[in-house]
């Protein structure tokens, strides 16, 4: 993805809504149920890992930041009994997430905002989830500060993403070379910062990309985008590590 604007992502999400084939392929590799509209590559086992890391009590407020179509946040809120607020900079993503919550009969609120500016009040949420999106923040430090601002004291943040095994490797895009969860969370004043590698997640992605790179996407725009991403991702897999980061608002 060279264009990272909200307008680009509006088109990306619109293409997804018209491509059941793309969603079916991704769900099969990630082990996701049909009702969970995935935006990224967190699988069913990964969701369980995230739920455990969040330690959310029933009735607490969860912010799903860069929520996309809302699938992950809605699933985690259903498992924990949390109140869900989703924020994404794509109005189309917010529209789809709102419709998805309505179809599922879930009580959730979605709004337009960004990683760097959620427009939420200070200390207004108990936990923050960022699935596979922190690398898009510009600058990264602003996103970590925003997460710290909206979290209540002792609130938890859980992030999933990819980091370069060698941050200086020029074969990686700049956004991955500068992604460092431990440093970003520590510099933003978080405590109990932990970053763990998740090789099982990466193995599932490898199998997905191998199949994706061998398909003929035809005139399906979402499949075409996934195919192009898969070809690039296969070459990148040995250069990255899949990580789960957690921290507590001091």
SSE inventory with pairings:
Elements: H1 6-17, H2 20-30, H3 44-54, E1 61-65, H4 71-80, E2 83-88, H5 91-104, E3 108-112, E4 125-131, H6 140-150, E5 151-164, H7 174-177, H8 181-187, E6 191-197, H9 199-212, H10 221-236, E7 240-248
Parallel strand pairs: 1-2, 1-4, 2-3, 4-5
Antiparallel strand pairs: 5-7, 6-7
Count of structural domains: 1
> What pattern of helices and strands is seen along the backbone?
HHHEHEHEEHEHHEHHE
β-sheet strand percentage: 15-25%
Uncertain stretches: none
CATH architecture: 3-Layer(aba) Sandwich
What share of residues is helical?
A: 40-55%
For the largest beta sheet, what order do the strands appear in spatially?
3-2-1-4-5-7-6
Number of helices: 10
How would you concisely characterize the structure shown here?
The protein has 250 residues and is α/β, with parallel strands linked by helices.
Characterise the protein shown here:
The chain has 250 residues and is an alpha/beta fold. The mean pLDDT is 95. The chain is 44% helix and 21% strand. The N and C termini lie far apart (35 Å). It has a single domain, classed as Vaccinia Virus protein VP39 (Rossmann fold, 3-Layer(aba) Sandwich). The chain has helices at 6-17, 20-30, 44-54, 71-80, 91-104, 140-150, 174-177, 181-187, 199-212, 221-236; strands at residues 61-65, 83-88, 108-112, 125-131, 151-164, 191-197, 240-248.
């Amino acid at each position: 993805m060279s264009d990272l604007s909200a307008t680009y992502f509006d088109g990306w999400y619109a293409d997804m809504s018209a491509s059941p084939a793309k969603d079916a392929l991704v769900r099969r590799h990630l082990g996701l149920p049909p009702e969970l509209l995935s935006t990224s590559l967190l699988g069913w086992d990964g969701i369980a890992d995230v739920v455990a890391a969040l330690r959310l009590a029933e009735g607490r407020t969860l912010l799903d930041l860069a929520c996309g179509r809302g699938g992950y946040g809605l699933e985690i809120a259903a498992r924990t009994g949390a109140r869900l607020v989703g924020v994404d900079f794509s109005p189309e993503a917010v529209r789809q997430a709102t419709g998805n919550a309505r179809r599922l009969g879930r009580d959730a609120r979605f709004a337009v905002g960004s990683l760097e500016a959620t427009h939420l009040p200070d200390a207004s949420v108990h936990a923050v989830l960022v699935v596979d999106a922190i690398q898009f923040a510009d600058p990264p430090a602003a996103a970590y500060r925003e997460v710290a601002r909206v979290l209540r004291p002792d609130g938890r943040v859980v992030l999933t993403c990819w980091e370069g095994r060698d941050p200086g490797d020029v074969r990686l895009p700049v956004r991955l070379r500068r992604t460092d969860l431990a440093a970003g969370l520590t510099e933003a004043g978080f405590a109990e910062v932990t970053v763990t590698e998740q090789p099982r997640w990466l193995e599932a992605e490898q199998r997905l990309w191998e199949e994706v790179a061998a398909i003929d996407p035809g005139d399906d725009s979402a499949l075409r985008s996934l195919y192009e991403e898969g070809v690039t991702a296969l070459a990148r897999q040995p250069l990255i590590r899949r990580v789960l980061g957690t921290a507590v608002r001091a």
